[in-house]
Amino acid sequence: MNTRQEVLDFVHHGAERFLPHLSIDCAIFGYHDHELKTLLIRHHGQENWSLPGGYIGRHETLTEAAHRILAEKTQLTGLFLQQFYTFGDSATRMNNIKTEQTHNTTYSKVGVSLSPGHWLSERTLSIGYYALVDYLQVVVTPEFLVDEYCWLNVADIPQELVYDHNEIIQKALLTLRAHIFQQPIGYNLLRDKFTLPEIHSLYETILCKQIDRRNFRKKLLTLGLIRQLDEQKKIGPHRSPFLYEFDLENYSRALEDGSILTF
Amino acid sequence: MNTRQEVLDFVHHGAERFLPHLSIDCAIFGYHDHELKTLLIRHHGQENWSLPGGYIGRHETLTEAAHRILAEKTQLTGLFLQQFYTFGDSATRMNNIKTEQTHNTTYSKVGVSLSPGHWLSERTLSIGYYALVDYLQVVVTPEFLVDEYCWLNVADIPQELVYDHNEIIQKALLTLRAHIFQQPIGYNLLRDKFTLPEIHSLYETILCKQIDRRNFRKKLLTLGLIRQLDEQKKIGPHRSPFLYEFDLENYSRALEDGSILTF
DNA sequence: TTACAATGCGTAAATTCTACGCAATAAACT
DNA sequence: AGTTTATTGCGTAGAATTTACGCATTGTAA
């Protein structure tokens, strides 16, 4: 939503196009230079940051909605996107008093005040998704109601996000760390070809622990999850590292066999 | 809902008490004698079986709703209940044509025909939970609209459950099998004190594979997940097996340490 | 040239996993 | 009563895997 007119239409006719009581919130993880970052946005008039989110169109599947919302924020399609939990317990998801006030502040930018019965004021459960993106490829598009956005290191996320977004992002991180043992997480956070130090540092960053460089390489190669290429990355200081790529076929086969990664 | 009057009230005034567009479906797993069973119900007029389910009250949390629905079906409270996925993709969750017809057949028992705009006819996403119960403790209470219920071996579940319930139960099983390595699953399916053959058979049943009896015992004892008691179960033929109990403290400590069970 | 950091490769020790053997016990059978 | 048999508890050798390093190689910088 990039214009005042679009926002007004959304407020007044959104209930015809979207399902009420349900939203999607998306923890978008991007990796760069030993740091795992999340995309946060600040809506107009809000003091605190939010996760990017949106509503489910009445004629699109849940998965389609999640991808659309992700694409609206990052301009990227076909990304790795994983549903991890639906949130409907926290105080802010029960009584909509705070929600109403918060919403009202934002929508005052287009001169509307949401009545208590308005569809945007009602109790809303949120379906949480997390996405993995190449940090450098993302072009964030600010929307009409978004004052500010930022990529924040996951360690630096403030304690006071709006609603229950702190809970959502914590659960997303926990899920990501559990999934890293069972899915080619790096495939979506790195470029097609990557060096061993790059993927090694990625795993160390996500898991928040040190992993022996040499054993890490051995394990991924032995299981056939990555494949060493002939090319070397010439740029960079000191010795030129080889390039590697994921072997997705082997990866899925290993998953079926029940091979488990441990570090 | 046990009377015609309650059902009529639910149909006509349910939208005031429950959130539309959302339901909870529950895969209730019970274990007994080497077999993993699921509770299925058959609504009035339906040819196919369903998972037990219900709606979310406007003034209860999502978790409260799940426990209430479970208690309504099994008369048991405080059970292990785990949310695992929210379903909003399948054809039956997109167009509500089939849903309308199916619903209408059931509600014809109380003489109502649901109009297209009726809250029960609208598109509904379903939040999936799975529960683990002691099969023998459950007292299933048939409701007014339920013609029949049964405990069906998970291997014998028919291919034609209503809506996307086959998909839901498959995902529940997959999740259960993944969680068995990280949570004291047996704690909720067995009694407080159990014998080694009992828990061994439970794990074999859930994982659908044979596990060496002796290594299985060694692993659980070494990790401190179960504790051997002095008592022996005198009943039963042949040698009297010792009784064991879960060591929940050690269990949660092992989880934090990241110890992983493998069989 | 030399020092140094980054990268790739190997190996020995420690640990864990796996596949069994076997004794002890209690019921069933001759 | 003695024998057979199924069930349970416990141990152990060998295989496999994990872990902790050593070290040579390469490119950059002093």
Automatic annotation (TrEMBL), chains A, B:
It comes from the Bacteria. The lineage of its organism: Bacteria, Pseudomonadati, Bacteroidota, Cytophagia, Cytophagales. Residues 19-175 form the Nudix hydrolase domain. SUPFAM superfamilies: Nudix, Winged helix' DNA-binding domain. Gene3D superfamilies: Nucleoside Triphosphate Pyrophosphohydrolase, Winged helix-like DNA-binding domain superfamily/Winged helix DNA-binding domain. This is NUDIX domain-containing protein. PANTHER family: ADP-RIBOSE PYROPHOSPHATASE, SLR1690 PROTEIN. InterPro entries: NUDIX_hydrolase-like_dom_sf (IPR015797), NUDIX_hydrolase_dom (IPR000086), WH-like_DNA-bd_sf (IPR036388), WH_DNA-bd_sf (IPR036390), WHD_NrtR (IPR054105). It comes from Hymenobacter nitidus.
